[in-house]
Structure formats: C-alpha cells, structure tokens
Amino acid sequence: MAEAKKLFIKTYGCQMNVYDSERMAEALGASGYVTTDSADDADMILLNTCHIREKAAEKVYSELGRFKTLKAANPELKIGVAGCVAQAEGEEIMRRQPLVDLVVGPQTYHRLPAMEQAVRAGQRAVDTEFPEEDKFEHLPKGPRAIRAPTAFLTVQEGCDKFCAFCVVPYTRGAEVSRPVARILGEARDLVLRGVREITLLGQNVNAYHGAGEDGDWGLARLIRELAKLDGLERIRFTTSHPNDMEEDLIAAHGDEPKLMPYLHLPVQSGSDRILKAMNRKHTAESYIRLIERLRAARPDLLLSGDFIVGFPGESDQDFEETMALVRAVGYGQAYSFKYSPRPGTPAAERAGVPDEVASERLQRLQALLTEQQYATQDAMIGREVSVLFEKPGREAGQMVGKSEYLHAVHVTNPKVQIGQIARVRVMGRTSNSLAAELV
Ligand code: 5AD
Ligand code: SF4
Q1: How far apart are CA 230 and CA 233, in angstroms?
Q2: Are residues 322 and 249 in the same domain?
Q3: CB atoms < 10 A from the CB of 189, how many?
Q4: Count of alpha carbons within 13 angstroms of residue 127, beta-carbon side
Q5: Does 57 contact ligand 2 (Cβ within 6 A)?
Q6: 73 shares its domain with 146
Q7: Stretch 293-300: mean pLDDT, rounded?
Q8: What pLDDT, in 10s, does the model give residues 370-407?
Q9: Which domain holds residue 417?
Q10: Is 169 touching ligand 2 by the criterion CB < 6 Å?
Q11: Is 284 in the same domain as 348?
Q12: How far apart are CA 246 and CA 294, in angstroms?
C-alpha cells in the first residue's frame, strides 16, 4: 500500500466551518489522506476561510504568503483555499497568490477528491458553483470521525434575510434545510460513537424547515425528535434570527429538558433607525418582548448576542440605544464588532462612521458586556451545575467541560473522566471559566 498522504486543515470563522473541515477531511480520507496537526509535514494544506469581516479575509492572504518556504522545500505540496473567501473571491485568489493550487467553495467541497486528482496532475482547480445536487449526499457515508463527547451537526445552510452588512447570503447562498431522516441518521451515528451533546448548526438555524415523512418539520419538532435518542443528553442550536423564533421553539426551552438553557440570539443594534437601515426587520422593542417570552418559558436562560457598532449612519443617540438595550436584556456573554464594509453588500455603498468614533463605541460596549458576563459568572458561585467533561485542562489533574449554560468549568479530581456528565458546585471564577468541585 502507498504511504498515506498528509492533510493539514486550518479552520477560520464560525462553527459551520469547523463542521465543514471535518467533512473535507473525510472526503479526502477516501483519496488516501490522513490529517496532521502540523503544516510542516503536509502534502496538502487547506485553509477553510471566513469572509464575514475584512480582518478575517486578510488573515488568509498573509497566512498563504507564509507557505512559500514550505512549498519550496516540498514541490509536491498542494495548497487549497476553501470556505467563504474562496466563494467570494474565486479566481482572484489564484491571481493574487500563485502558490494556490485549488479553490473550493462551501457548496462544492464534495468534489474535492476529483479536484485533488486534477491538482496532482499539475492543474489548478477552481470550483465555486452553487450546484443543484446536495453535497451531503455525495460526501462519504461512513461513520463520522469523532474524538470528543460533543459534536456539531449542520441542519441548515445559507440565509435569505439579506441584512445590509452581511456576506452570508452571497457566500453560502439561499436557505436550504437538510431532510429530517438524514439528520436523525447522522445524530444516531454520533451517539453510537459516544457523543452526548449535539449542537445543531445553521446560518439561520431557527428558519429550519426540513422535509419529514409527513411534510415540513420546524426546528422545535426536530429537537423534540432528537431528544428521544437514548444516550444523547444535551442539544443546542446556533445561530438564530429573532423573526424566526416561533412559538413551539420558545416552548421547547421550557419543556424539553435536553435543550440546554443557553441561546445565542443576535440583535446587532438597539436603535430602530439603524435596525431598519440594517434590514433586520425587527425593532428593539420586539426583540425585548421576545426575550421576555423566552425567559417566561425558561427563567434561567443564559442569553448571548452579536452587536455591530459604527454601522453607516449610527449617531451617538443610536449607540446609546444599543447600550440601553444591553442593560435591559442582560447578556451572559456576547460578541461585538466594529462594522466592516463587505464588497457586494448594500451597506458597503454607504458612508461610514469615523474609525475613532466606532472604536470608542466598541470599547464602551465591550466594557458593559464584560461587566454583565462577569456578573453572570459571579452569580453562579455557590450554585450546583452539571458539566459535560470534554478534555484535560492546563493544570495537572484538571478536567474542563461545559455547564448547561455553556460556561467553561474546570474541576481537579482524578475521578472525573472525559465524556462524563457530573454535578459540580461552582467555587469561583477566572476571567473566562468557572472553578468547581464535584458534589
Ligand atoms: N461587519 C461587522 N460585523 C459583521 N457581522 C456580520 N457582518 C459584519 C460586518 N460586515 C457580525 C454580525 C453577525 C456576526 C456573525 O458577525 O454581528 O451576527
Ligand atoms: Fe447575515 Fe445572519 Fe443577517 Fe443572515 S440573518 S444576513 S447570516 S446577519
């Protein structure tokens, strides 16, 4: 047998990219590749890229430049760019960076084995189509390669919302939901391989409407069906749009014990004027009412969000309204970004806010969000939570896992094992995690 070729994949951006990278590794596994943790001994390097903000895309080009010496040392080394930068820039990547042999978008990576052959034959290959066929149907059907008790499972891709700042509808395409039976099959396989927590992924996951045997299923019904799987203990989903938060999904937070009390629900801004300019199609008020309904269903729900500051036209008053919304909601954790114009999106045509102003706003918003995050963590001290342990921690004898609320929790106790779910008492916090003891 020929010696296995080595594949190094570096993943940028969102959790869907993490999932896609695993599928790409499996697709190339069928062509004789095994993954390696180091670019230095690789026969193929794939960068699975993110285009959501400018910095994310620029990182890819600087990373590619660094592979020059590797390629000089090993002429057989092939370099590929996958993901959303690949989709958005296509051939342009080949022009800008002659080191690149292969460019593949998020909807065509099931074609990687054929592209790999072309590349080995000395060609350069680009495929950024949005094909008719479903890539999942053409990917290897064997069991997924699993090493952890938690896993991602893509149930929906693409977005039809067209927020004025966002590239996702262009890089990932229109909303497509995978059929129920395929998702259940993949989930069963994960559970058989020791997975106890599944996070359902989609760019707009709560818009899920997949074909079931008796018509269209929404996300809540899918979650309730998954919850019936013995051995699967925890279900999460991300990312959602407020307008797709339907009644049965809100109810599931209260009555489905396997659905974890953590919800990432981006609002982006607290100003109705800016929300309108962003084409978000909801108001600050309607978002706050929605949070109230969710908390009525599940009072201890931990909320996470996304915010953009310095969107074109954002005044001091608009920004203060964002601060007021944050105070009204109370987030357990959140992500916030300075607006970054993305080529091809409607907002990119509009005059921006001066950078110093945006930076100052971002600082103030992040200070408030961090304060809320710490307060939420501090409120956990003395409480009992259950933790699914995922990996050894930094210190000797330490294990780290996640609470129901997605807090990182570490425990030092030789009895704790990876994959175990245990009740612990929170004793203190460091900046990004909680320290706990077994009860
Ligand atoms: N500039 C800044 N932040 C953005 N996001 C999406 N597009 C942009 C952009 N052009 C943020 C949004 C989204 C998160 C994934 O990234 O907050 O929810
Ligand atoms: Fe982008 Fe999310 Fe808006 Fe869709 S809903 S356009 S993915 S920010």
Answers
A1: 8
A2: yes
A3: 16
A4: 19
A5: no
A6: no
A7: 98
A8: 999 999 999 999 999 999 999 999 988 999 999 999 99
A9: 384-438
A10: yes
A11: yes
A12: 11
User: Helices 112-120 and 15-29 sit at what angle, rounded to 10 degrees?
Assistant: 60
Rounded distance, CA 44 to CA 36, Å?
A: 10
Residue 1, pLDDT > 60, answer no
Is residue 241 within 6 Å of ligand 2 at its C-beta?
Answer: yes
The percentage of residues in the chain with a pLDDT greater than 90, rounded to a whole number, is 90
If you measure from the C-alpha of residue 159 to the centroid of ligand 2, how many angstroms do you get, rounded to a whole number?
A: 6
Which residues are CB-contacts of 102 (< 8 A; sequence separation ≥ 6)?
Answer: 78, 79, 80, 81, 115, 116, 119, 124, 125, 126
User: Was 285 annotated as part of a binding site?
Assistant: no
Residues 110 and 173 in one domain: no
| Distance from residue 331's CA to the centre of ligand 2 (Å) | 20
Question: Are 245 and 198 within one domain?
Answer: yes
CA–CA gap between residue 400 and residue 387 (Å, rounded): 9
Q: How far is the CA of 26 from the centre of ligand 2 (A)?
A: 29
For residue 63, give both structure tokens.
Answer: 């990373």
Whether residues 220 and 272 share a domain: the answer is yes
Say which residue the tokens 């999106």 belong to. 345
Query: Are 118 and 139 in a shared domain?
Result: no
Distance CA(44)–CA(78), nearest Å, equals: 5
Whole-number pLDDT of residue 81: 97
Residue 206 has pLDDT above 70, yes or no: yes
366 and 407 fall within a common domain: no
Contacting residues for 165 by C-beta, under 8 A, at least 6 apart: 278, 308, 311, 339, 341, 342, 345, 347
Cα of 158 vs centre of ligand 2, distance in Å, is 9
Does the Cβ of 177 fall within 6 Å of ligand 1? no
Q: Is 342 in the pocket of ligand 1 (CB under 6 A)?
A: yes
Residue pLDDT, tens place only, 115-147: 999 999 999 999 999 988 888 888 887 767 667
Examine the pLDDT at 255 and tell me if it is beyond 70. yes
